[in-house]
From TrEMBL:
Keywords annotated in UniProt: DNA-binding, Phosphoprotein, Transcription, Transcription regulation, Two-component regulatory system
Organism lineage string: Bacteria, Bacillati, Actinomycetota, Actinomycetes, Pseudonocardiales
Name the UniProt record assigns to this protein: Response regulator transcription factor
Domain called Response regulatory: residue spans: 4-117
Organism: Lentzea tibetensis
4-aspartylphosphate, modified sites: D53
Superkingdom classification of source: Bacteria
Length: 229
């Protein structure tokens, strides 16, 4: 079976054309036509790759990237008619892996798809995320620190998973909130502070002087390996 690709494109004709190209390359293809459906479909059954248009109804492509990047490490390739440098950088800063501007060459697009999916295959064998002595086991849904099993709530696990997928990256409270409660959560960002405080009690030797789960003042939090480097 080929890799699965989710296409989010509100233009039905373009979506169908892209679907045909992908199927000719041997990929399994699903198609949605708005950003809200893209988020729901990824959460329901995550594809190996998401290709999405920037301009979509309900939730635009940039917000789709912002929400999903806080939840998953799947590669995302954005399609856009906008070609200015600022537009491209904004999408990449939000977490998109690659950009193709319209009109695009189908051969070039398929080459970009193959490149991103090779990256997926290189990392597919690993089901555990390790940051220093902290291990987040995605398969067993367990967290261990220095070999000791820790009891974590579902929300705490989701926060650790999100941060352990990108060690050293700073996550805002809003990004972590999206990872835990999604786009429609009615929970305040202070909830994240409470989760972080509880996590520090579990993973830090001295919670008031953390070496793993660090605060970046005015921005958010990051997870590091505890080495102090």
């Amino acid at each position: 079976m080929g890799n699965s690709v989710l296409v989010a494109e509100d233009n039905v004709m373009q979506a169908d054309m892209l679907g045909r190209y992908l199927r000719q390359e041997g990929y399994q293809v699903r198609i949605v036509h708005d950003g809200r459906s893209a988020i729901d479909e990824v959460r329901r059954n995550a594809p190996d790759l998401l290709i999405l248009d920037v301009m979509m109804p309900k939730v635009d492509g940039l917000d789709v990237v912002r929400v999903l990047r806080a939840e998953t490490g799947i590669p995302m390739l954005m399609l856009t008619a906008k070609s200015t440098e600022d537009d491209l950088l904004h999408g990449l800063d939000l977490g998109a892996d690659d950009y193709v501007t319209k009109p695009y060459s189908p051969r070039e697009l398929m080459a970009r798809v193959r490149t991103l999916l090779r990256r997926v295959q290189r990392h597919a064998a690993s089901t555990a995320l390790t940051v220093g002595e902290l291990v987040v086991d995605l398969y067993g849904h367990e967290v261990r620190m220095a070999g000791q099993l820790l009891e974590c709530t579902a929300s705490e696990f989701r926060i650790l998973q999100t941060m352990a997928e990108a060690p050293g990256r700073v996550f805002s409270r809003a990004q972590l909130l999206s990872a835990v409660h999604g786009l429609d959560g009615f929970i305040t960002e202070r909830t994240i502070d409470a989760h972080v405080m509880n996590l520090r009690k579990k993973i830090e030797t001295t919670p008031r002087q953390p070496v793993y789960l660090l605060t970046v003042h005015g921005v958010g939090y990051k997870l590091v390996d505890g080495s102090g480097r």
